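Protocol step 4 of 5: obtain the predicted structure for the target chain.
Materials: sequence only (see below). No template structures provided, no constraints applied. The aim of this step is simply to have a reference model before the mutagenesis design in step 5. Sequence pasted as it appears in the construct record:
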Amino acid sequence: MATKSKYSVLLPTYNERRNLPIITWLLNQTFTENNLDWELIIIDDASPDGTQNIARQLIHAYGPQRIKLRARAGKLGLGTAYAHGLQFATGDSVIIMDADFSHHPKFLPAMIAAQKEGDYDIVTGTRYAGDGGVHGWDLKRKLVSRGANLLADTLLRPGVSDLTGSFRLYKREVLREVMGRTESKGYTFQMEMMVRAKAMGYRVAEVPISFVDRVYGESKLGSTEIVEYAKGVLSLWLKV
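Step 4 output (structure tokens):
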């Protein structure tokens, strides 16, 4: 008899006290309705708004077997947040996503089904294929995102439509291996992860998602991150 899969959700947070209870409720609803085993690992970077207090209340509400808080001393970058959280993951599959509702848990069943159907190493949500899309962005933000993906696709040719997306399902050991090869820690992290995964021969499936701009809080993307991304693409072009 096959062992039931378990899904570990890695959720980096910074000032997400208003979003965290709702995204946790939605995750619980999604996994429960689909009879899936799961855990949520909250990686908080010393949020000053009380996010960790909310996380502790959620542990009390849902139980420590479901919700885990693995806090860090400060803002240390997205890549290191996933590496930190992965140490505590007990699932055989790992989901990475944002806490601000830009990645809705309602898409997880389709991503999980796609992984099982083709035994894929990675399933990534895409805004730029099928009926995927973006809602709530102005024209400038849409052009930046499209341009970032076009630049990477032209130079690196990874065969994935949404390189900068951060809503993904990995086999745990695949995530560990790819992260071990990935050098960047900031905005280029997701792009480099996918490019390296493809170069390593891992199989990737895409599932269309609707991306919605954050409900509460401020976007962390600025001009510095855009320049960093362009440099990261060129660096990878020389290395991979």
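Step 4 remarks: The chain has a mean pLDDT of 82. DSSP finds eight helices and nine strands in the chain.
Proceed to step 5.
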